[in-house]
Amino acid sequence: MNISVVIPAYNEEKRIGACIKALLEGSEKPFEIIVADGMSSDNTVQIARDLGAVVVNNEKRHAAGGRNEGIKAARGDVIAFIDADCVPDKDWLKEIHKAFEEDDIDGLGTYIEAAKSDNKYEQFWGHLSLQILMSYGDEPYYVEQKSLNTAFITASCAYKRSLLQKLNGFSDFFANNAEDIDLCWRAVDAGAKLKYVPSAKIVAHSPDNLKGIRKKSFRNGVSSSKLQKTYSGKKFNIDRNLYKALFSNIGGMFTGRKFASLFVVEILCHLAGKYYGSIKCGVINI
Fold it and tell me: How many angstroms separate the CA atoms of 282 and 286, rounded?
């Protein structure tokens, strides 16, 4: 079995070299590394080519489009996805290969750990996204239900190419907003055998400035509206827990609670994304 690795990228000169080098230095080498570049203006493409990666153009410039271009170019039986700002463990590909060989699965998600950082913004986002919103335990399990915290995210996952072709790849409708969750849920609906494999591990970097947190939070809000439009069948949704968390963290700002002010920024931007997504999708998601 050959495993192709697809990395969507846009202006990732700071991180993509470490990602590709870790892949090349792993205990199992990738069959090929494909970087789908969204018209970068920095040295992303040159770094990738210098390290031997195949670079394809992603003219749509969003994550779904980039991964689809990677799928088109890939020749492997399995396509593993990783983000340019992530660093795989030395046995990442070895464990992915082992899981597909031993269990005849159609797709898998892996353990994702937040990168160690002294930057408070990166610490916050790693804590929020990889410990609160998603769950990465130490025991393997099969994914048979459509839920947010067990869906595979493309920071680190892998699917058989035949399944990706059957599903017609990633949805342009989702673009940069939960396109990975949508793919995972469509795979569940298609009866695919999906497994969480904690022995395959990566370290993921997070936004290291306030602008990055605002952008990610807004996109997550839009994602919520798109998922509601596609899967819930409901025109109206209100997340009361989100508002409770907002007021709780406003209070926490005055008592010195750790990350309280960043939670307030994150929630407000998330809500803004939900409102914007509601308008774009024709739902009410507040």
Answer: 13
